[in-house]
Amino acid sequence: MKKATFIFGHKNPDTDSVVSATAYAAFKKARGECDYKACRAGKLNPQTDYIYKKFGITPPEFIPDMNPRVAYYMSDSADVLNQMTPFWEASAFMREHGRKVLPIVDDEGHYKAILNYNSYTKKIFGILRPEHHISVVTTVSLMCRTLSGKTVCEGNEAEVLHTYTIISGSSSLDSFAKTLEDHKDKESLVVITGDRQDIQKLCIEKKVRALILSAGRKPCQEVIEKAKESGTSIIISKYDTASTSMLVLYSTPVRVLSDQTIRPIKPEDSIQKIMPMLKEVASQTLPVVDDEGKVVGMLSEIDVHHDSKIKIALVDHNERTQAVDGIENYQITDIVDHHRIGSLSTKLPISFINMPLGSTSTIITKLFQDEKLEIPLDIARLLLCGILSDTLILKSATTTPTDIEIAGYLSKITSLNIEELGEEIIKAGSRISGRTSYEVINQDMKEYNENGILFTVSQIEVDGTDEVLERKNDFLDDLEIARKSHGALFASLLVTDISSLSSVMLVAAEEKFLSAVNFPKQDEHIYFLKDVVSRKKQLIPMLSEILATYGS
Questions:
Q1: Using one digit for the tens of pLDDT, what is the confidence trace for 441-497?
Q2: Which of these, 134, 121, 128, 125, lies nearest to 91 by C-alpha position?
Q3: In whole angstroms, what is the distance from residue 432 CA to residue 491 CA?
Q4: What's the pLDDT at 552?
Q5: Which residues of 137-149 are buried (b: 16+ CB within 10 A; e: fewer)?
Q6: Which of 488, 485, 478 is nearest to 525 (CA)?
Q7: Which of 370, 308, 310, 307 is nearest to 336 (CA)?
Q8: Is the model's pLDDT at 128 over the cut of 70?
Q9: Sheet holding 36-40, edge to edge
Q10: DSSP string, 344-409
Q11: CA dist 521 to 492, 512, 526, Å?
Q12: Secondary structure of residue 365 in the 3-state scheme
């Protein structure tokens, strides 16, 4: 995965939040900064989903949390070796490229094992036992390849992987004949000799698997013909007998010398999950594979302790309680918002744009204008929807002259009518029939912290509050569940009637807090808020006043 800056709105994103993520990524791209990527941490609400489908635009990628994952720390690529690569070639590659660990793959590129110093050292020392003849797991073809030799005669099963015993044909004929007789399985023998025709002919007569002639010596035609009849391979090596013997040993394919017990990991695996696996392997490095089992990178313990390849930009909020889970693991680079300054802090200076406007979409439109950058048509359509949604078609108390001006500008370049589009998208988001109270409460819930007191405020715009009030018990039950799960003092739902531009608020809380609420009471746990339509500009300041004196 390449380095990137993920742009997130708040956890339960409304239309302005999602649109702002998409538009800010487009703004950055227009400036030549193409590593910004629009994301979302929550499900699209019905209104936002309707808007993206209406204009045929792909919404931001859903990433439910930013808990550290393998993809955010791994290398973007990895050198691999085919499992039938001779170890001599593999070791040369590792030396040349400074690799201590290499994934081993099959012909289709699927991961099979890991080659590292620990694995092949143990296995080679198991082979190099002076009290026994050297045994090598290899093929005749790999021997020739490693020796850079010439095959004069290719015998039977030259491509078959087998355990071969290597013996030298340098003694007297009688002595060598006795050595051959001591080996019952002649087809598992490979003999290295020089220009001794008597040794050569005896080997062919006994049908050894391969005959390797050192120092570039060539067999006579009679020997070649007899070898073809017996099925013995003949290889000419340019090296002396000692060097030839060593290189035959190194013809072993890497699949034999690698560690096949090391399991690969996936890009989506959590760092917490794979850390024990990293610590278990001697190299403290693991291969990363995709869903097809093909190697896409490597991850070492050192990588995990370096900075992530991912950075974060925030739009439409600047409070940690509203941010995607796991944000504390990453560097925040940008914030674009129109809310109050929240609890979020950063280690390094960042680009922080905060303006008292009706929507973040307005701010991002101004960024395009200020830098004289053309707004793509699909982005302009989204930005207009973001403004109309967050300002209730420019009727909310948060609406400013700038919002009205920018909405007019976007209406002109998109040829979209403000009133018609506004009513269309507001209605798309106001339908609650067929939706559970849980879905409605959680589609746009924000958590706040006032001097250590936690509370949540959800909001939904509807064309009439009757249906919500008819189902008040369901809503209050789910608000109580939300209150307890958040460890909050209270959980509330602001139901804004777009026809009357007023709201009712349902509150789940203990009686002690409810007795402190001084809003006009409509019913048990339900309050009527005349002319209140804005959560951030109207309701939150009112709640802050109550909390300032609560418990004192």
A1: 998 899 999 888 999 999 998 888 999 999 999 999 999 999 999 999 999 999 999
A2: 121
A3: 19
A4: 60
A5: bbbbbbbbbbbeb
A6: 478
A7: 370
A8: no
A9: 61-62, 36-40, 4-8, 310-315, 332-337, 351-354
A10: ---SS--EEEE--SS-HHHHHHHHHHHTT-PPPHHHHHHHHHHHHHHTTTTTSTT--HHHHHHHHH
A11: 14, 16, 6
A12: helix
> How many Cβ atoms are within 10 Å of 32's Cβ, its own excluded?
6
Quick check: 242 and 263 in contact, CB under 8 A? no
Q: Is the pLDDT of residue 124 over 80?
A: no
For 213-271, write each residue's pLDDT tens digit: 999 999 999 999 999 999 999 999 999 999 998 899 899 999 988 989 999 999 999 99
User: What tokens were used for 243?
Assistant: 């060097």
Structure token pair of residue 471? 């189902």
Q: What is the pLDDT of residues 319-355, one digit of tens each?
A: 888 999 999 999 999 999 999 888 788 889 999 999 9
Beta strands in 106-218 (DSSP E): 111-116, 134-138, 150-153, 162-169, 189-193, 210-213
Of the candidates 2, 6, 10, the residue with the CA atom closest to the CA atom of residue 321: 10
Phi and psi at 274, nearest 5°, equal: -90, -10
- Structure tokens given for 361: 């979409």
Residue listed under structure tokens 């099959």: 106
Is residue 104 within 8 Å of residue 110, measured between CB atoms? no
List the structure tokens of 475.
Answer: 């809503």
- The mean pLDDT value for 63-70 works out to 96
Dihedrals φ, ψ of 301, to 5°?
-65, -30
Q: How confident is the model at residue 540 (pLDDT cuts 50, 70, 90)?
A: very high
Asked if 223 contacts 200 with a C-beta cutoff of 8 angstroms, the reply is: yes
Return the closest-CA partner of residue 78 out of 296, 271, 362, 277: 296
| Amino acid at position 170, single letter | S
**pLDDT tens digits, 211-227:** 999 999 999 999 999 99
Q: How far is CA 180 from the centre of its chain?
A: 59
CB contact at 8 A, 210 and 155: yes
